[in-house]
Amino acid sequence: MKRYTDRHGQEHRVEITLLTRRRILEQMEIDLVRCAHDHDALTAMLNELSQDDVVWQMLAIIEGKQVDELLEAADGTTHESASAALLGAIVDFFPAGSPLRAPLTRLLAKVGAAQLTAYETSQQILMEIVDGLDLQSADITAAAPMSG
């Protein structure tokens, strides 16, 4: 079972059972069992999971909650960890001997590496912006005394 924590500090369990697999199939028309045997179906599912709304819809089904309830407690960090937890839960759904586990595990590692790279890049860009600010010449009206 995988977990993620929302911005309120609440921990969410992400586990796909046969019941949640059936609900995902009924509500999203994504068949995880078919994905285990059909490369095109797996590719299609992974492409869909690249869309934020699809990730949260699947998480809502798994957790038995409303999408808006999950989104209200989410921020960018939550989204990254929730996406990783969902992919991990999908990997865990397949039997240990499934030929899909190894490629899905590699994909999960690539997603994690891409998220880390994106985070590091954004931090570097932000630091360059902050370093480039010329606060001495900026028109800072908030510091000026107000007359009344």
Strands, total number: 2
Order of helices and strands: EEHHHHHHH
Structural class: mainly alpha
Please list the strands of the largest sheet in the order they lie side by side: 1-2
The helix content, as a percent range, equals 55-70%
Task: Kindly provide the radius of gyration, computed on alpha-carbon positions and rounded to a whole number of angstroms.
Answer: 21 Å
What does the main sheet amount to? 2 strands, antiparallel
Count of individual helical segments: 7
Low-pLDDT parts are: none
Q: Tell me the strand percentage band.
A: 5-15%
Can you tell me the overall shape?
globular
Can you offer a commentary on this structure?
The chain is mainly α. The chain has one domain (2-132). Helix content is 64%, strand content 5%. The chain contains seven helices and two strands. It has helices spanning 18-28, 32-37, 39-48, 52-63, 67-72, 76-93, 101-132; strands spanning 2-5, 11-14. A two-stranded antiparallel ribbon has the order 1-2. A hairpin with a 5-residue loop joins β1 and β2. The longest helix has 32 residues, at 101-132. It is globular.
Helices and strands in order:
Elements: E1 2-5, E2 11-14, H1 18-28, H2 32-37, H3 39-48, H4 52-63, H5 67-72, H6 76-93, H7 101-132
Antiparallel strand pairs: 1-2
Helix pairs in contact: 1-4, 4-6, 6-7
